[in-house]
Amino acid sequence: MYDSDNPFLNGNYAPWREEGEAYDLEIEGELPRELNGALYRIGPNPHFMPAGRYHWFDGDGMVHAFILRDGRAAYRNRYVRTDGLKAEMKAGRALFGGLIEQPREMSPDVPPFKNAANTNIIGFNNRLLALWEAGLPHELKPETLETIGLYDFGGKISGPVTAHPKFDPANGDLLFFGYQPFPPYVTWYRAGRDGKLLETRAIESKIPVMMHDFITTDNYAIFFVCPSVFHIENAGQGKPLLIWEPQHGTRIGAMNRHTGDVKWFEDEAFFVFHFLNAYEENGSLVVDGCRMKALDMTGTSFGGNPPMPWRWNLNLKDGSIRQNQIDEVSGEFPRLDERLAGRKHRYGYFAGGNADERTNEPGFQALLKRDYQTGKLEQHTLGANFAPGEPVFVPRDAKSAEDDGWVLAVWYDSALNRSEMIVLDAQNFTGKPVARVKLQHRVPWGFHGNWVPAVEVRG
Ligand SMILES: [Fe+2]
Fold it and tell me: Are 99 and 297 in contact (CB under 8 A)?
């Protein structure tokens, strides 16, 4: 379809531009009746061939919703109608540049970047929000996926909002931050479950970095300042905006959520895209995430720096760090039973196995389940032609124990060039899937998604 040698425009990275809906999808197995709601997924899907060199992070956000009810499944997908995409639709061509290249002909009346609205999608305040870390969220209608517009927390936030906010399990508060290439580089926010902004605080990160994720505990918000450094003076100079500068090392700031005081920890340079969770134990902060030795944004593989499961133990008394790699299997897109966000967890779910050795479909080969108590690692695979995206854990009910529920993920079948949404029983992780919901087309490799129960979905 595309003769480009750009890996982000080929295979299952290639855009899927049809929007539509399908009812009564074919199901192999049986969907649990408890799964009453929607799995929303989002990812980049360039509507127009970019003018400059395309990077995966640049593509227009498309939402894919798997709506489950009474053992039946429907599907709907739609682009987020950002102002940028609407302008491009009107022009009939790409108007914006991307992360690694700006277009040759810039229109004087458009900014260099558009809000791609492509990274994560959450249910919050009875709304559906599509997130992108360099701008404001977009609010969508949960049932039709129509775009309502930018969501600015009642006019209180105008700057960027991370794509990885956390929910405080104690009260439903939204805990989040924004980062930008000019001071203040990092700003912490807290909003009530009703969307009212309750707290804003600047964090002194010293250098402007790309900070994709952070992590919280009951009493701390933890910011990893990895040295992927912005150089906005390079804009328009044909040089990269983001440079890996290991000489800065990585600094970890633990902000006391009550006082705002930040304790800093120093380490050698490394990079983290995503954290699994963090919790407090014996005067330390325990942080689980996926650690890379360096950041390489040039290819679809991890450039010899695969993300490895890592645990940091940050001693709040003496400022020391103890850390260890959990095991030898690489993985990304770590997800938790989020009722335990900020509290001690036992299990983590990942998409894993760096697929460098596979012929034409970079990506993951397996879903992984880690038991941090016993060290046990379980793996679910479906054959060489199947590759999964991010796993999303859904508890059986509000009172069920950790890990008592299902792991939902969209898998791509390269043999049929189609995708399936597959439900695993988390406690029988290696067993046969509970249900396989089949589409007649593929869902391009995307980033993140979340389960939103039907009771929280508003039309
Ligand atoms: Fe992410």
Answer: yes
Residue closest to 150 by CA, chosen among 213, 80, 65: 80
For residue 352, how far is its CA from the centre of ligand 1 (angstroms)?
A: 15
What's the gap in Å between 308 CA and the centre of ligand 1? 16
Distance 306 CA to ligand 1 centre (A): 16
How many angstroms separate the Cα of 33 from the Cα of each of 68, 72, 74, 298? 9, 9, 14, 43
Average pLDDT value for the chain: 92
Give the bridge partners for 243, in sequence order.
229
Could you give the 3-state DSSP secondary structure of residue 4?
Answer: coil
List of the chain residues with pLDDT < 50: 1-3, 355-361, 458-459
Predicted local confidence at residue 298, as pLDDT: 57
Listed residue (408, 403, 405) closest to 423, CA to CA: 408
Return the closest-CA partner of residue 85 out of 59, 109, 64, 52: 59
CATH classification of 7-456 is 3.90.1640.30, yes or no?
A: no
**Residue 90 Cα to ligand 1 middle (Å):** 30
What global pTM score does this model have?
A: 0.95
Q: Which residues pair with 190 in a beta bridge?
A: 175, 199
Contact 386, 438 (CB under 8 A): no
**Rounded distance from Cα 222 to ligand 1 centre (Å):** 16
Distance from residue 161's CA to the centre of ligand 1 (Å): 13
Instruction: State the distance from the centre of ligand 1 to the C-alpha of 123, rounded, in angstroms.
Output: 16
CB 424 within 8 A of CB 367: yes
pLDDT at 242: 86
Distance 133 CA to ligand 1 centre (A): 9
Q: What is the distance in A from the centroid of ligand 1 to the CA of 107? A: 30
Distance 71 CA to ligand 1 centre (A): 30
Distance 448 CA to ligand 1 centre (A): 7
- pLDDT (0 to 100) of residue 368: 95
Instruction: Quickly list DSSP for 186-219.
Output: EEEEEE-TTS-EEEEEEE--SS-B-----EE-SS
Residue with tokens 């690489």: 330
pLDDT for position 107: 62
Instruction: Report how far residue 220's alpha carbon sits from residue 217's, in angstroms, rounded to the nearest whole number.
Output: 5
pLDDT of residue 364: 87
Task: Give the Cβ contact number of residue 337 at 10 Å.
Answer: 23
pLDDT for 99 equals 75
What is the separation, in whole angstroms, between the first and last Cα of the chain? 36
Length of the chain: 459
How many whole angstroms from 126 Cα to the centroid of ligand 1? 22
